[in-house]
Every structure is written in C-alpha cells, then in structure tokens.
Design goal:
Shape of chain B: rod-shaped
Largest interface: A-B, 27 and 23 residues
Mean pLDDT of chain B: 83
Largest sheet of chain A: 6 strands, mixed
Shape of chain A: globular
Order of helices and strands of chain B: HHHEHEHEHEHHHH
Structural class of chain B: alpha+beta
CATH architecture of the largest domain in chain A: 3-Layer(aba) Sandwich
Order of helices and strands of chain A: EEEHEEHEHHHHHEHEHEE
Oligomer: heterodimer
Number of helices of chain A: 9
Strand order of the largest sheet of chain B: 2-3-1-4
Chain lengths: ~240, ~300
C-alpha cells in the first residue's frame, strides 16, 4: 500500500458516473434512472433495504454487470464500450470487497491477499513490506499460511479488504464489509477506509450498519445515498 | 509463437499457482498424451518402414529386368545366344547373363522341392539384365528380340513393381495420416479436458477477474499446465513406444514387412519430435478452448 497520498487522478474529477442507468432482468426493472457521480477523493455510503439493488448498483460500478438502460462510465469510458481487457484494466485500478468474500481456496491467505499484485505482474515481492504491514493491520499476520476455508467469517472480510487495497487502487468498492465482524474490528476497518479516503481514494460502501455511517461522518465528509424502489436518493440529512 | 512457448516453459511460479493442481483432467491429459504418443511412434515406424520398402523395391527392381526364353530344347541355346548378342548391342544395358541351371533350380526350389529334375521339364531359360542409369528403350528391345529370338519375352518388372511401390507409398502416406489423426485426437481430448478444467474452476476465474486478471493471464495459467502435462505424458508414451519398437524381433534382409518395422540410423531420433508436437498441439488446443470458454463465462 502506498502512503504518499498520490493518485493518478486529479482530486475532484469524476471516476465513476451513472447517467440514467437502469438495470433489469426478466422484463422487470430493478434499478432505473440512476444518476450518480463518484468524484475522486469522495466517500459514499449506500444504504437501503435488502433486495433494493445495492449489490447490483455496486456491480454496475465495477462493470461486473452492464446497464440495460442509460450508461455507466468508469474512468471516463462507458462500461458497455469496454473490451474485456478494458474491464480488467479498470478493475486493476479498483479494490472490490464482495459480500461473499471469495478467495482461491487452494492458496494460503498471504498469497490470496497478494493476488492483485500477482495478476498485475508486480509479483508478491513487489509488495512484501506493504503486505506484511497490511496483514498486521487487519490482524491476520498469524493466519498468513491458513487456507481460506479455515478462516472465520470476520477473518474472510478482513482479508477481502486487505486484498482490495493491496494495489493502492483509486477506487474502493465494498459490499457490506462489516457484516460478519465485531464492533472493534469494524471500527478498525472503517479507520482504514477513512485513511485511504484521506489519501485521495474514492470509497463506495454498501452497508446496513448505520453506526458505521455515523462513526464515519464524525470524521470525514461522507455522502449517504439511499436506494429504494429502484431509485437513488440522498439520505445524508437523516443520519 | 517461439516466444510464447519459451515463456510457457520458463513459467511464472506465482501465476502458475492460481489454478489448483488437483482434478481428473490432470490424469486424463497425461494418459491421453502418453497413449497417443505411443501410437504415434508405431505410426511413424510403419510409415518409415513402408518408405524404406518402397525405396528398396523401387531401387532394386528399377534397374533390373528379365528375359524369359521359351523355345524347343533344340533351339534354346541358339536363342539364348541371340538374346545375349542383342543385349550386348543395346544401348542402356550395363550387363546381361543367362542364369545357370543351378540358379534356376534354386529359384524354383521353394515351390517344387530340392529334387527338381530341371533337365526333364520344359523350363524357360532366364536372362538377367542390368540397366545403366539412363536405362534402355524397352519397346525397341522388345521389337529386336521378336525379330532375333521369337521365344524371348522381356519382363521389365514394371507390371508388378508399380503396384507394389504404389502400395508401399500409400502405406507410408497412411502412416503420416495416422500421425495427423493422432494429433487431432490429442487436440480434441485436450480441448475437452481443458474445458472441463475451466468449468471446474469457475470460482477461480471469478476471483481472478475480480482482481483485474485479463483473459490471456487466466488462459496462460491453464495453457502452461496442459502443455507441460502433454509434454510429460507424450515423452513417457514416446519412450515406451520406442522401447517396444526396439524390442520387436529382427529378421534377415529378406524378412517380412512386419519384422522390418522399426527405425534405422538417424530415424531413431525422429520420435523425439512427438512430445514436442504434442506440447504444441496442447498449447493451441488449450489456448483456443480457454479463450472460448472465458468469452462465454461472464
């Protein structure tokens, strides 16, 4: 993890933009008319009831899904126009924490966390110092040789977050990152996200955890978006 | 392509580990490559043996011919001398000689036994003719023989030599076609095995994509693994095949075709090509299968 606070993007420029984005399947619309601009260095929380489409919206943001209407622009390029290599290149500039925290079950935790480095051709050695520091920060140093199936739910989420930030990405997208961890650890993870945001990273977190949002808002200027009935609303003032 | 193969052999120890090693496709690829290489060694040996046979028949018979003289006993010697005289004057004939009774008896012995009373039977006299490299005019010689020795018939072996040489040539081609089919079958089997391996690793692919892996990176991990398995399996199959060929019983020069199956001289090095061909086939088959599957998997 780089700690120089430098970014490839100018502070305040748009990194992800949804323009009247819609997504639906089977004839029905789950999301419609979504307008959203995620600017560099901003911090967003996404809330809403289960099944409202939070995960779908996040997946649109990292081109795991393509909009069925409108457009989603990632680093200035429409996701529908991106080649497969283009999507891969965009993902290398993002850190994604999935709700189900999938890992390569045959690799030890340390190698799983370093996977984005390996995939980017930088190799584990390139991030060795950062890797050890990061593993210590998320409290997984003692578990570095454990295989993912041996980890608890909380350990998996911490590991997923560590994997998402190992390459010092421009954008971090996290889906319920504190869902399976205790209060103390969720605060530590929040601190990591806050620190990354102060370094200029764009953070988008989908969560049900209102205490997490309040804790974040006491430290930084975070916007809260609420998704309900397929629409996106600003919910900052309610919290 | 050479660069790609070099990269594959060199490998990337960390990138290699992203795909789990377990799975039945490992054993399937090793076994298929080994079995196919074993068969390919035999196809190659058959092809080369057929080629040698065709060359031998071609060379041995191309420059020799026979004149058969069928005449009453009283005229036999005169016609034989007439034939030899004609041959002596014929351009393109290097040498000619009448076969002795003993030689003719030896030729007939396999069919009639050792006590053949040659002098009591109306056996034609045979004259062996050896051509120069340029050869003679067969039609012209036939006409001269008809005039000088009416009982002499020229047999230049072409009538039966051509079908034999053609058959041997086709056998050789059949051997190479077999090698082609074996490679195609190997490619098909490896394509299936690679497809199965990719299908069994959908989660691995999903995780790799999540962290920004390009399709070529994911494909390379599978391609390297399958190419090395194919190379290993084929090397073992080739070794066993070559040992089996070497262990075949040998016969004398005039032995039957089957006992002549094998390699000679530098041909013993030719099976070394089989594992390389297997690896190259596996490389392309796996790459095509992987990229096709990755395009399909969202």
């Amino acid at each position: 993890m780089r700690h120089d606070g430098l970014s490839l993007l100018d502070w305040g420029c748009v990194v992800i933009e949804l323009k009247q984005a819609a997504y639906g399947y089977g004839g029905g619309a789950l999301l419609e008319g979504m307008d959203l601009q995620l600017t560099q260095g901003s911090f967003y929380f996404l809330t809403g009831p289960s099944g409202a489409g939070k995960t779908t919206l996040l997946r649109l943001c990292y081109a795991d899904l393509l909009p069925t209407g409108g457009s989603v622009e990632i680093f200035g390029k429409k996701s529908t126009d991106m080649t497969r290599d283009g999507v891969a290149a965009a993902r290398q500039r993002m850190g994604v924490v999935h709700q189900d925290c999938e890992f390569l079950d045959h690799l030890p935790l340390e190698e799983n966390i370093a996977l984005p480095l390996t995939v980017a051709g930088r190799g584990m050695a390139a991030g060795n110092g950062d890797l050890a520091e990061l593993m210590g920060w998320v409290g997984l140093t003692a578990r570095k040789n454990a295989l993912p199936p041996e980890l608890s739910g909380g350990e998996r989420q911490r590991a997923a977050l560590a994997r998402a930030v190992i390459t010092d990405p421009d954008v971090i997208i996290a889906d319920e990152p504190t869902g399976n961890i205790d209060w103390e650890m969720s605060q530590r993870l929040l601190q990591l996200l806050v620190e990354l945001n102060r370094m200029g990273k764009t953070i988008l977190v989908a969560t049900h955890d209102l205490s997490l949002i309040r804790a974040a808002k006491s430290q930084i200027s975070a916007r809260v978006l609420r998704i309900a009935g397929g629409q996106l609303q600003s919910a900052g003032s309610e919290l | 392509m050479v660069g790609q193969i070099f990269d594959i052999l060199k490998g990337d120890s960390q990138a290699d580990r992203v795909v789990p090693k377990r799975g039945h496709s490992v054993r399937l690829t090793l076994f298929t490559s080994g079995a196919m290489a074993f068969l390919a060694v035999f196809a190659l040996a058959m092809s080369l043996a057929a080629g040698r046979l065709a060359d031998r028949w071609s060379d041995a018979l191309a420059r020799s011919s026979t004149i058969r003289i069928s005449a009453p006993a009283g005229e036999m010697e005169a016609q034989t001398w007439a034939v030899l005289e004609v041959l002596e004057q014929t351009p393109g004939v290097e040498s000619a000689r009448a076969m002795t009774d003993a030689e003719q008896r030896d030729l007939l012995e396999p069919w009639f036994g050792p006590d053949l009373p040659l002098e009591d039977l109306p056996i034609p006299r045979l004259v062996e003719v050896i051509e120069t490299a340029a050869g003679y005019d067969g039609e012209g010689l036939r006409q001269r023989l008809a005039a000088e020795a009416p009982g002499a018939i020229l047999d230049d072996h072409t009538r039966w030599r051509r079908p034999l040489v053609r058959a041997a040539g086709r056998l050789r081609a059949l051997g190479f076609v077999s090698i082609g089919l074996i490679l195609a079958s190997t490619a098909a089997m490896i394509t299936l095995a690679a497809g199965a391996a990719l299908a069994a690793n959908v989660k691995v692919i999903r995780v790799l994509r999540l962290v920004g892996a390009r399709d070529t990176y994911i494909a390379r991990a599978f391609v390297r693994r399958f190419s090395i398995r194919a190379l290993t399996g084929a090397a073992v199959g080739t070794a066993f095949g070559t040992i089996a060929i070497a262990a075949l019983p040998r016969a004398q020069e005039e032995g039957a075709f089957l006992t002549g199956l094998g390699f000679s001289g530098f041909e013993w090095a030719m099976p070394l090509v089989i594992p390389i061909l297997a690896a190259v086939t596996a490389f392309w088959a796996t790459r095509a299968a992987a990229l096709r599957t990755l395009r399909r998997l969202q």
